[in-house]
User: What shape does this take?
Amino acid sequence: MIIENSEVILSVKNLTADVDGIPILKGLSLEVKSGEIHAIMGPNGSGKSTFSKVLAGHPDYEVTGGEILFRGQDLAELEPEDRARSGIFLAFQYPLEIPGVSNLDFLRVAYNSKRKHLGEEELDAFDFDELVQQKLDVVKMDASFLNRSVNEGFSGGEKKRNEILQMALLEPKLAILDETDSGLDIDALRIVANGVNQLSNPDNATVLITHYQRLLNYIEPDYVHIMANGRILRTGTKELALEVEERGYDWVLEEAGEVVAS
Amino acid sequence: MTIQVSPNPIAAELTPAMKRDAFLAHLLDLAKQTQPTQAWLTSLRDRASEQVQSHSFPTTRNEEWRFTDLSPLLEVPFTEVGSRESGVGLDALDRFVLPEAVNCRLVFVDGVYAPELSSIADLPDGLTVGALSNLPDLKLDTYLGQQPNSDELFTALNTVGLIDAAIVWVPKNLEVETPIHLLFVSTAGDTPTFVQPRCLIIAEPNSSATIVEEYGAIGQGQSFTNAVTEIWVEGNAEVSHTRVQRESDSAFHIGKTAVSQARDSRYTCNAISLGAAISRHHLEIYQAGEQIQTTLNGLTIAKGTQLADTHSKIALTQPYATTNQLHKCIVDDRAHVVFNGKVSVPQAAQLTNAGQLNQNLLLSSKARVDTKPQLEIVADNVKCTHGATVGQLEADEVFYLQSRGIDAESARNLLIYAFAIEIMNEIPIESLRDRLAKCLR
Assistant: This one.
């Protein structure tokens, strides 16, 4: 929802970034305010996932210019864990499997590291268990998932739901969902979208990165951005998503004066 | 035609071969000087002495010792200890004592049985747990020193110095619930010590037992432990064996575990290797019968300049066997780990299912691993897999944890712990599992 004069959560100005010395982001600008849901769409290789990794602080991605302000704070010098603790959450496109670490322990360690950061007391196993039981409901997950190793042997849909469960626990100010809808059947997509909708509120913001307009039938964005060649070329409302679904991306690139790959 | 060159007397004194011969002769002398506690051991010792003399001390030119250089051992003037005045009290054993086995513990200090530190109360009827020296009536000659490959150098050397042994004999049909703890501690101080512990475990048909064999150090001095454990798992019996080697950082440890399994028997070994400057574990399984199950779980953690070697051999002979081996190594700093695992599946061993996997986690660019999983399959109707992996901590895994607010160091530790815990979880004794998990930082 668009709220007048709400807090600017994310302000990206003219961001450029490299991977292995190859420029991927080439002057990206974006402003996200509290309460809003933004969708970023674009063809393969447009830099969408790179943008999400840069926001989360992945060490392989080097910011070469521009700035990222998160709630007024420059992110450049912050380690990934400090970004997470101050309220940035990235739902991974391919959540990693961590055999040997139980999901419950992982969630508790993550949750408590945030509490510690906020100067709050850490929750013991018993209290945490109670909290996590409530959150399971958000993504309709069975409690048996908690005792399994993190994402190990999970189906694609289960992994994505597990990401949303982490998000429900960590209650981020800014959630970035990197293709969370990819590879999901319609039931899993509904559950994931429902979870995201439940967690979205006037005090936080969500950035959805997606390939498919389908997701936006379930999560209604306030803004849709079309990204290509490492920049946002066009910004509109959800109708823009329908239009690219219909017509493809080439016209957006042409109108922006970009070279269209044949 | 050979050309005779008269040797330079000074150089001759220093040739590595002569040095090795002299060292082995010295060890043999030390072993022979010990007094067996029972007369019948003499002939066993004498035969072993001949076997030792037919060997020379291994070098890295021997294929079996290619990656494990024992030459640092030659520099240490070992002397046999075995004096009873070790002065070790129970309080010094605090970090070894297992609450689960509090009434079922044999302690040997520098190779000598320490009854005052041992505890063998309330044993079930028929179960024998004790030191050979206290068990003159047991007829052990068909078991002790009777495993295949007992004439191998270090096994034979142990037999030459055989004075006493930890004995566990489980009678037919008895299922022993309490774990049995066989603890060997070294107190080496300023004098380098040479210790040769021995264990003999016999599980009669349909019996079951859980054994913890542990090597630990109270002193930080140099010691050389040459240990041999022989295990007989008879028809349909089950033995769960956890072997923990956490000697001092300056120790040398060569250990043999030889296991003979009869039909329908189950044997599991959880071998955890943490200590010693140079260590080598020979794990040999001889299957003799149908439908035998063998499970070998191994975890080696090496750091600093440690060298830790595991050589395993599983010899299948008959159909319907199941063998599973998972050996994991965590190697940090400039440490070096060696794994060599043979599984042989001859023509007769049809319908067997054999899996072998060696996984290595390297934590430093100077860490080294040499791995050689070997399957020798002659039978044509079997299911066999084997493999080895060598990896580092995945940057993406660390990042995933960081992105959830976990700092980089904790993330790394969590991932190392996760790598090791699969093996740790196989240890059936909670207190030991927890204690070892703490060694992972």
Q: What stands out?
A: The helical segments of chain B are 9-14, 16-33, 41-53, 71-74, 153-160, 395-402, 408-424, 430-438. The two ends of chain B are 62 Å apart (CA to CA). The longest helix of chain B spans residues 16-33. Residues 395-441 of chain B form one domain.
